[in-house]
Amino acid sequence: MPGAMCRSDSTGRSGAAGKSGAAGKSGAARSVSRGTSSRGRGSAKSRDRRAITDAPPYHGIHVAPLQPEHEKIRWLKDTRRSDRVRVRKHTCDCMATIYELCYAGGLLFIRRTIRELDSRVAHETDRLITVRMEDLWMRLILGQAR
Length: 146
Fold this sequence. Notes:
Elements: H1 17-25, H2 44-54, E1 76-77, E2 86-90, E3 97-104, E4 107-115, E5 120-124, H3 130-141
Antiparallel strand pairs: 1-5, 2-3, 3-4, 4-5
Helix pairs in contact: 1-2
């Protein structure tokens, strides 16, 4: 399923619980209890701690199966020509092949990393302007390019 997310939490809880915990840790303002009981919920500090640990991790989206009529992407050797690369989007790392939409020097490119038993082989696309590369990224995720 294109765009499906992988979660390792088997409890089925949503990821929204972690947001409230992060605010408690950052020193944000808390509500003050004025004579009302906490109704057995525990202290605010323990609730914050519990909310942080209960949030399931986010791994990334899964790539859709390859379509019969797909575009062939030209993969180049990983040259490491940029000293600073920012990963803007990525696919789930539960698969053997990981795709990353990377930003460097004002241009975007896709990095494909194939993990084998004891090695990793990385390839990159040509570097293109944002509009063109985001279109290619979407086609890759939907299985229309590989």
